[in-house]
Amino acid sequence: METEFWLLDITYSLSDDEIRLYGIDGGGRRVIILDRDFHHYFYLLVGEGVAPSDVIDAARPKAEGAVLRFERVRKRLFGRPVDAVKVTCRRHALLGPLARKLRKVEGVRGVLEDDIRYSDRYLIDNDVTPCGWHRVRVEEVENRWGYRADAVYRALGAPSRSERVEPPQLRVLSFSLEYCAPFGVSSGESFVATLSVRAGGRAQRFVAEDRDDRSVLRGFAGLVADYDPDVIVGYGSNLFDWKVLMERAAANKVRIDVGRDGSGPHRSVYGHVSVAGRANVDLLNHV
């Protein structure tokens, strides 16, 4: 079967070598599409006067079964034609160590594109665009992972762009919190005093009891699970609100599993906080 979906988020699993596409289908259902057929790769830049076949012969013994295939390719580097070897890995987790090892192979003068993130590589190669409509052949699978979705599919091919333009109706949740540190932030006596949420046209507030903010954390996580927003909005939330929530959750040993895969929020390399399957928007970056 084929499904049409509007891409909201993309993540990946290192343990399963799996790309996860979170979207909304044409009927307004929240869906997750799992793709286990995409293999990550990088390039070995071949030195001047060196035959690519010699590089492949020298690299193959060092790969130790980690490589799915070596391919001689002709590329452009800053507009100049160059010879390269495309190295496709069996598993994504092997890419980094393998690139560092093959960098030392005789005749290799550099390694390229080994620093492209797995999910970004998928988007680039398949011309997939977040907040855009796509089509893909799928088969529905049992949701044995407990994902927060109306349907879970396994991709039977690569996605392609759809001509559909109009975005779907999105569920939006906004939140803000007040943090109390009566004896200083480093005193260990700080807590989330209140957390206010607006979702689906309704406002709700969670208030700490006797400086115990565990009910606030659980209440927020529960509301996110119940309302199941596509977009979570805050102001200064990447810098402050999410940071506080993650710190207080760790201190209280409370799970704030707000992701559609049951995971908690996590900070990316560049400081943005990601929530799996949802778009986390900090308006401070846009206003």
Account of the 3D structure:
The strands form 4 sheets. A 5-stranded mixed β-barrel has the order 1-2-3-9-8. The chain has a 5-stranded mixed beta sheet with strand order 13-12-11-14-17, with helices on one face. The chain contains 5 helices and 17 strands. Helices cover 21% and strands 38% of the residues. It folds into 3 domains: 2-37 and 120-161, OB fold (Dihydrolipoamide Acetyltransferase, E2P), CATH 2.40.50; 46-109; 172-285, Ribonuclease H-like superfamily/Ribonuclease H (Nucleotidyltransferase, domain 5), CATH 3.30.420. A hairpin with a 2-residue loop joins β5 (67-77) and β6.
Topology:
Blueprint: E1 2-13, E2 18-25, E3 30-35, E4 41-46, H1 52-63, E5 67-77, E6 80-89, H2 95-102, E7 108-112, H3 118-126, E8 133-141, E9 151-155, E10 160-161, E11 172-180, E12 191-199, E13 202-207, H4 214-227, E14 231-234, H5 237-252, E15 266-267, E16 273-274, E17 279-282
Parallel strand pairs: 3-9, 11-14, 14-17
Antiparallel strand pairs: 1-2, 1-8, 2-3, 4-6, 4-7, 5-6, 8-9, 8-10, 11-12, 12-13, 15-16
Short account of what is shown:
Helix content is 21%, strand content 38%.
Keywords:
287 residues, alpha+beta, Nucleotidyltransferase, domain 5, 17 strands, 38% strand, five-stranded mixed beta barrel, five-stranded mixed β-sheet, OB fold (Dihydrolipoamide Acetyltransferase, E2P)
How many individual helices? Answer: 5
Amount of beta strand? 35-45%
Please tally the β strands and state the result. Answer: 17
Which architecture name of the largest domain does CATH use? 2-Layer Sandwich
The CATH homology group name of the largest domain? Ribonuclease H-like superfamily/Ribonuclease H
